[in-house]
Design brief:
1 helix, Neuraminidase, 2 domains, mainly beta, four-stranded antiparallel beta sheet
């Protein structure tokens, strides 16, 4: 028995050591160059971009860039109330412009929508949110861009004071409320997170209200018509989502901060028409609790983060899209970063993210985590050029060609903020696969993965309609 115990302990230590070896702190925030990030990173080439809600010259947060190896940190912009304050969401990249929102600041003090070049130049205040029925205020999330139109949400304000969905063009004109949420209403209120665009339909979540008062998943057209309450959270099926849904074909995947069997939050799936709800995972004190970001998808594997529990600052986990094979990949600790409030992004075999706290002075960190994805043995000695995509640039319809790949694969296409906007099963062995890609103009990243999530190949595709 003693030998078994020693062996078990040794295996446990080895597992912990492997997890630690896979985790790398790329940057420790030091307050003067930003502190306490409360959102997610985006990646363009080998550069990461993000925001902090504190620190910087005025202590109101900043926009920064960083090479994906941890070098070259640059403070691109310091918020100073007049140009925004306390950003609590993610940036969106369109060509060489970054778009984002702040929770406070701007002309009226209720937040603003802005754009800025990736170099840190050319800041433009596109819209100042206001405490008025014709506007929203306190935007808590990010925007999505389709053509020359921006879509987003504000968590408060509007005609009924319960938040709005809005549209505005990329020049900052034609601001329009396309949906007003209502408190004490069964259709949801206090929206947050990022909208998901599929064709001409927007999908999102609200933190509260709905039939049971605990939030909902909704859809509506980009012109504001056909609002539909797809799912009402009741507590047992989830409660109070803080993040966004992602898409994989006809399925939506998301998380709630609370609810489920243990009231620690859940991971769920739902058909895009509102049917087929499935509770994939009930969080607990052991596997993490309180997720407040989005999931990301690779093959049939979902990755996410929690900001509470094991051991004291959240964890990185994965689970298959059918709810099986849960794995706790890494437990955060305060010395190297803890309490992540945003989402992960995936590039190659690496996950990148941020924590709000922990690090050298407890101001948060940027980190990288090696997923240890491996390519199947059939592809280890394969020649370069197994995967080709044409035409590129494309108007939205293109062909992905595979050769000498004798296993079932999927293609995943991600936008610049790391959301999976299309997943399609590929035919292999000299077959050409037609991809119909109905997304806005911009740069997208594709990955071809096998059934185990192993990376077979990747690249970029440019959409120009």
């Amino acid at each position: 028995m003693k030998k078994i115990s020693i062996l078990t302990f040794a295996i446990l230590c080895l597992a912990i050591g492997v997890g630690k070896a896979q985790y790398t702190v790329l940057h420790n925030f030091n307050d003067t160059e930003g502190a306490n990030p409360y959102g997610s990173l985006i990646m363009s080439g080998n550069k990461l971009f993000g925001m902090t809600r504190g620190g910087g010259v005025g202590k109101y947060g900043c926009i920064f860039s960083l090479n994906n190896n941890g070098t070259g940190f640059k403070d691109l912009l310091d918020f100073k109330i007049s140009n925004g304050s306390t950003p609590s969401g993610d940036l969106t990249l369109m060509r060489n412009r970054l778009y984002g929102m702040t929770y406070f600041g701007g002309i009226y003090g209720y937040g603003c929508l802005f754009s800025i070049d990736t170099t840190g130049n050319g800041y433009k205040d596109l819209h100042d949110f206001n405490f008025a029925p014709s506007d929203g205020f306190y935007p808590y999330g990010s925007v999505i861009i389709a053509g020359n139109m921006i879509y987003g949400m504000a968590s408060n304000g509007g005609a009924w004071g319960a938040g709005i969905v809005f549209s505005i063009d990329t020049n900052g004109t034609q601001f329009k409320i396309i949906h007003n949420f209502i408190m004490a209403d069964t259709s949801g209120a206090l929206p947050d997170g990022l909208l998901l665009l599929l064709g001409k339909t927007l999908f999102g979540m609200t933190f509260t209200e709905g039939k049971f008062g605990f939030g909902c998943v909704f859809s509506l057209d980009t012109n504001g018509s056909r609002y539909k309450d797809l799912l009402d959270f009741s507590g047992t099926n989830g409660k109070n989502p803080w993040g966004s849904v992602i898409n994989n074909g006809s399925k939506l995947y998301g998380m709630t901060e609370f609810g489920g069997i243990n009231n620690y939050g859940i991971v769920f799936s739902l058909d895009t028409d509102g049917t087929g709800y499935k509770d994939l995972l009930d969080m607990n004190y052991i596997n993490g609790s309180g997720p407040q970001g989005n999931l990301i998808l690779s093959g049939n594997v979902l990755f996410g983060m929690t900001n509470n529990c094991p051991p004291n600052g959240g964890n990185i986990f994965s689970i298959r899209t059918d709810g099986s094979a849960f794995k706790d990949h890494y437990d955060f600790d305060c010395s190297t970063g803890c309490v992540p409030f945003g989402s992960l992004i995936l590039s190659g075999k690496y996950l990148y993210g941020m924590t709000e706290r922990g690090g050298t002075i407890d101001s948060g960190v940027v980190f990288r985590f090696d997923t240890n994805f491996t390519v199947s043995i059939n592809n280890l000695s394969a020649p370069i050029g197994l995967i080709s995509l044409f035409p590129n640039p494309s108007t939205g319809s293109f062909t992905l060609s595979l050769s000498n790949i004798n296993e079932k694969c999927n293609v995943e296409i991600y936008n610049v903020i790391g959301e999976c906007v299309l997943t399609q099963i590929l035919r292999s062995t000299q077959d050409d696969n037609l991809i119909e890609f109905n997304q806005p103009n911009g740069v997208y990243f594709y990955r071809v993965v096998n059934e185990e999530g192993g990376l077979v190949g990747s690249g970029k595709v440019v959409i120009e309609k």
